[in-house]
Amino acid sequence: MEISFVVEEAGCDSCAALVRAALEPLGEVRSLEIDEAADRATVRLVPTRPLEEAEIAAALAAASEGTGHAYRVQP
After folding, report:
1. Residue 60 in contact with residue 73, Cβ under 8 Å?
2. Are the beta carbons of 70 and 57 closer than 8 angstroms?
3. How far apart are CA 46 and CA 69, in angstroms?
4. Which string of DSSP letters, residue by residue, matches 38-57?
5. pLDDT recorded at residue 75
6. pLDDT digit of tens for each residue in the chain (75 aa)?
7. What's the rounded Cα separation, in Å, for the pair 54 and 68?
8. Which of 13, 17, 59, 70 has the most neighbouring CB atoms within 10 Å?
9. What pLDDT is attached to residue 32?
10. Angle between helices 13-23 and 53-64 (to 10 degrees)
11. d(CA 22, CA 39)
12. What are phi and psi of 21, to 5 degrees?
């Protein structure tokens, strides 16, 4: 089952790489499209197991530490 979501404050190539690396342990990242103007990325992920939103949020928060960004799933 594929899930899609938007990650806020991830609108550049380096942010996209950090987001991808953070999510890969959770499943296959099918696509990650950045929107520089909106400062966000749209992610399509096929999780290896059922995921709670809190797990995704924790992975994104850890990836954003020290970057000056706060990656988070857009509500």
Report:
1. yes
2. no
3. 25
4. TTEEEEEEEESS---HHHHH
5. 85
6. 899 999 999 999 999 999 999 999 999 999 999 999 999 999 999 999 999 999 999 999 999 999 999 999 998
7. 21
8. 59
9. 97
10. 130
11. 18
12. -60, -35
Extract the tokens encoding 32: 């990650």
* DSSP letter, residue 2: -
> HSE on the CB side for 33, CA within 13 Å?
5
Give the pair of three-digit tokens for residue 15.
């942010």
Residue whose C-alpha is closest to residue 17's, from 41, 37, 52:
41
Q: Which residues of 40-71 are buried (b: 16+ CB within 10 A; e: fewer)?
A: bbbbebeeeeebeeeebeebbeebbeeeebeb
